[in-house]
Amino acid sequence: MKDTTVKASMASAVDDCAQAIDESWQRRVGVKHDMPVTSPGFREITYGSDTYKATLALRHRILREPLGLNLWHENLSVEIDQRHFTLWQQSASLDAGGQKQVELVACLVIVPKSPGCVKLRQMAVNDRYQRQGLGQRLIALVEAVLVGEGVELIELHARESAVGFYQTSGYQRVGPPFTEVGLPHQCMTKIIHNNVGKTL
């Protein structure tokens, strides 16, 4: 009974946190709101928008929930200065009008580090679409955008279980493994100015 009460309290706290974040976004001045996604494709989205909140739900489900962590407890306000890229695809589900819905299949965040260098983080692929090459496709599309802006180097912290995934996209191990969010990680980098689009 006690465990049930504690879980209910935690769920309520998470709901309150999500509501508070939602209300703060609604009050935020100058934040653009993305148009609803109605067709498949690659998009850069806006912090605080409904599409951004869809990426949070995916990131929480894929990257945090399996570890017993909650993305909503993290300081998401820092992401206002970061870039958010997404890949959308038609799903088998139909909307109320009988039309096929468009579903978020993958997302990632890019953090500016220094001139010519960025960090890739929070890469998540919808579990219903994994092992179909969509994660590599999103990375390649993002690399094409970045190289056009003069970025030459991407760095990232890969979970040990995801190292092979990033190696497929041309990333290489740098330095010794380390622990992050309770899991072994590996720093990886890729020079993109002459490698962009290799996985498109």
What would you say this structure looks like, in words?
With 200 residues, the chain is α+β, with helices and mostly antiparallel strands. It has a single domain, classed as Gcn5-related N-acetyltransferase (GNAT) (Aminopeptidase, 3-Layer(aba) Sandwich). The protein has 4 helices and 8 strands. About 6% of the residues have low confidence.
- The proportion of residues in beta strands is 25-35%
Order of helices and strands: HEHEEEHEHEEE
Cα gyration radius (Å): 18 Å
CATH topology title? Aminopeptidase
Largest sheet, if any? 8 strands, mixed
Unreliable sequence segments: 6-11, 27-31
Give the structural class: alpha+beta
- Put simply, the count of helices is 4
